[in-house]
């Protein structure tokens, strides 16, 4: 259901986000600029951005149930080839294996339920930590073609 | 509370409502509700709506945006209308492919191609 993984030894940046445009855009701006400074190409930033935005939005909407008093924690560490990030909400957690496959024919026309799938599609690894209110993701920069 | 400025550029071309987005990060979760509501009003205003959504100015989108597109498609289908998408950049198009939403939407390379496809 949910796996626990060893914490990274890389130095981490950790931010506490309220569910406000200011907090979220400020955090993302800092995070993506730090990746560009490390030499990540726009295609890499696109992928990481898509995944982290889904994780943060899931944290606010599903984890914290839109409770404006609750926050989401975003932390990351990065090298020129490797990004580790973690998103944690203040909810009770969930079972990611219970999320239906949004690409199944019977689910295609359902408006919701694609966030987790996109996270898994664009990141090298996605793991939820028990009880499911914390997700760790890894992006490994592809070698040049 | 003052209404937010529209984030859409809208034109009527031979009975087709063509919608373009004003800024590049328009389809994040914060904006998508308003965008969905705005486009929904155009659909409501027409008997058999013909809608073209042009993504030429879109560099990023969220799963919420995909959900809004699906909802708009349902709304248009309910009025026996037609929906086309066009000018989707490769990175964004890959999101449609991965989610298999290419099965649900008629997607054209250009707005001109899309316009020709309306019945």
Can you describe this structure?
The complex is a heterodimer of chains A (145) and B (119). Chain A has helices at 21-37, 42-63, 115-122; strands at 13-17, 72-78, 82-88, 125-129, 134-140. Chain A has 145 residues and is of the alpha+beta class. In chain A, β2 and β3 form a beta hairpin. The longest helix of chain A is centred in the middle third of the chain and has 22 residues, at 42-63. Chain A is globular. The model of chain A is unreliable at 1-7 (pLDDT under 50). Chain B is α/β, with parallel strands linked by helices. In chain B, α1 packs parallel to α2. The model of chain B has no long low-confidence stretch (mean pLDDT 91). Chain A binds chain B through residues 21, 24, 43, 46, 49-50, 53-54, 57, 102-103, 108-112, 114-115, 117-118, 121, and chain B through 28-30, 59-60, 62-64, 66-68, 70-71, 74, 91, 95, 98-101, 103-104.
């Amino acid at each position: 259901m949910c796996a626990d993984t060893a914490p990274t030894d890389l130095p981490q940046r950790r931010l506490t986000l309220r569910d406000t445009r200011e907090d979220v855009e400020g955090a993302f701006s800092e995070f993506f600029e730090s990746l560009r400074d490390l030499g990540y190409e726009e295609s890499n930033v696109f992928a990481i951005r898509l995944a982290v935005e889904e994780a943060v939005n899931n944290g606010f909407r599903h984890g914290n149930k839109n409770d404006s008093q609750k926050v989401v924690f975003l932390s990351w560490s990065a090298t020129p080839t490797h990004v580790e990030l973690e998103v944690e909400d203040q909810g009770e957690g969930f079972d990611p294996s219970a999320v239906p496959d949004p690409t199944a024919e019977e689910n295609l026309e359902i408006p919701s339920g694609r966030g987790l799938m996109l996270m898994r599609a664009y990141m090298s690894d996605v793991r939820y930590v028990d009880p499911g209110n914390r997700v760790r993701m890894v992006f490994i920069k592809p070698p040049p073609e | 509370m003052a209404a937010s400025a529209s984030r859409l550029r809208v034109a009527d071309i031979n009975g087709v409502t063509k919608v373009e987005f004003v800024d590049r990060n328009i389809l994040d979760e914060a904006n998508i509700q308003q965008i969905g509501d705005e486009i929904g009003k155009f659909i409501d205003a027409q008997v058999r709506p013909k809608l073209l959504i042009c993504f030429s100015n879109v560099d990023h989108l969220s799963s919420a945006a995909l959900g809004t597109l699906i909802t708009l498609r349902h709304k248009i289908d309910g009025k026996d209308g037609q929906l086309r998408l066009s000018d989707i950049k490769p990175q964004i198009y890959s999101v449609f492919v991965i989610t298999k939403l290419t099965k649900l939407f008629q997607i054209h390379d250009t707005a001109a191609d899309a316009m020709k496809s309306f019945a």
